[in-house]
Write a structure and sequence with these properties.
The chain has 15 helices and twelve strands. By secondary structure, it is of the alpha/beta class. It catalyses: a 2'-deoxycytidine in DNA + S-adenosyl-L-methionine = a 5-methyl-2'-deoxycytidine in DNA + S-adenosyl-L-homocysteine + H(+).
């Protein structure tokens, strides 16, 4: 068969092929986009076979009367390579200094930071479908899925330099045991550790919630460090808690960072980055134009929040909504309603108070509104050309789950500095 017309990535990833593609291969779209972004380097071989199989199935669906040959699939792949880079808002550097993989990738906070430093992402994994949409829209790549599955791990290439992972925090069963590799089975950290063991990256960069330090009375962190240092043989300095507000974004967000280097590199010291001492406030990220009335609270909802806070204050608790002044620092943006309710703002620019959504009561006249998804993006250090292709509800969840890009980048800069010095 001669290819009658171009077939695009959008067609292959589109709804018309979805049922057939899912039945045929869970990893087809991911392998295809990973190949397109890595066709010039040595990891392409990990993706090409599945990419061609996926394309061939798509062509058979589009041209059911034709005999689809391997040559036709190859031809379609070449068409895509030619056009693909033009469509990506955040392309990888053309002459990368190092390679990294992005596990529990979310919407790409680690990736943005590492690309800004000259890194090339060669593998991505993320299970949430809505986060995958945002990731693909910005980086042109469909992440592979559930990293706990062996068929997902088998696509991870060899010889990358840095493993990045913002893995969820889980308790380990270590009663009466030494708290080593085997004790982490059944947790997501086990999958991270297993990949490190198999692939032996030069460096690892892990991020987690501040509470990991005291999780399960400190046993969880102790086990993680024991696995990395003793079982896997990495130099791991003491983890450090960094705050996003110290790195140029007006958000009080503390997270624990864990850094490690393969022992044969001879790296035996590491300094976490110092605060930038840059003065920041919410007004630095506030929307410049009047925002939609949909972000303004109704009188009924606002009254509910006021009463809720009063009840907790009467009991001596500090729970409840909070309004961030323009010259203030936002609380941590997190998933759930309280992530938004503890980050309300004053904005008196609204003139039309006609509701555009179904609300109880009228729109409040005090100018109290939620922050917008774009403001949350800025609080996490994402640039304004970062695309938000999902609903507001999904966007709040995604940015709430993300890493703060500037803090990640400042730490990664110290990692890469040592890797390049010991190359």
């Amino acid at each position: 068969m001669e290819l009658k017309e171009k077939i695009t990535v959008e067609e292959v990833n589109g709804k018309a092929f979805k049922i057939r593609m899912v039945e045929a291969s869970e990893h087809g779209n991911a392998a295809l986009t990973h190949y397109l972004l890595n066709h010039k380097n040595d990891v392409a071989s990990f993706y090409k076979e599945e990419a061609l199989n996926h394309l061939r199935r798509a062509l058979e669906y589009k041209f059911p009367e034709d005999n689809i040959t391997s040559k036709a699939a190859e031809e379609a792949l070449q068409y895509m390579i030619f056009d693909f880079q033009k469509e990506i808002p955040f392309p990888a550097p053309t002459k990368p200094k190092f390679k990294f993989i992005d596990l529990f990738a979310g919407i790409g906070g680690f990736r943005l930071a590492m690309q800004n430093l000259g890194g090339k992402c060669v593998y991505t994994s993320e299970w949430d479908e809505q986060a995958k949409k945002t990731y693909q829209a910005n980086f042109g790549e469909v992440p592979f899925g559930d990293i706990t599955k062996e068929e997902t791990k088998r696509f991870i290439p060899d010889n990358f330099d840095v493993l990045c992972a913002g893995f969820p925090c889980q308790a380990f069963s270590i009663a009466g045991r030494r708290g080593g590799f085997e004790d982490t089975r059944g947790t997501l950290f086990f999958d991270v550790a297993e990949i490190i063991k198999r692939k032996q990256p030069k460096a690892i960069f892990l991020e987690n919630v501040k509470g990991l330090r005291n999780h399960d009375k400190g046993k969880t962190l102790k086990t993680i460090l024991n696995v990395l240092r003793e079982d896997l043989g990495y130099y791991v300095p003491e983890p450090q808690i960094l705050n996003a507000k110290d790195f140029g974004v007006p958000q009080n967000r503390e997270r624990i960072f864990i850094v490690g280097f393969r022992s044969d590199l001879g790296i035996d010291e590491f300094e976490y980055p110092e605060p930038t001492n840059q003065t920041v406030a919410f007004e630095d990220v506030k929307e410049e134009e009047t925002v939609s009335v949909k972000y303004y609270l109704s009188d009924t909802y606002l009254n509910t929040l006021v009463k809720h806070k009063q009840r907790h204050e009467s009991k001596g608790n500090g729970f409840g909504y909070e309004i961030i002044p323009d010259d203030g620092i936002a609380n941590a943006v997190v998933c759930g309603g309280m992530g938004r309710e503890r980050n309300l703002v004053y904005d008196d620019r609204l003139e039309d108070f006609t509701p555009v959504t179904h609300i109880k009561g009228e729109v409040n006249r005090q100018g109290i509104r939620k922050m917008t998804p774009r403001e949350w993006a800025r609080l996490q250090g994402f640039p304004d050309n970062f695309l938000i292709p999902v609903s507001d509800a999904s966007a709040y969840k995604q940015f709430g789950n993300s890493v703060a890009v500037p803090a990640i980048q400042a730490t990664a800069k110290e990692i890469i500095k040592r890797l390049l010095k010991h190359a």
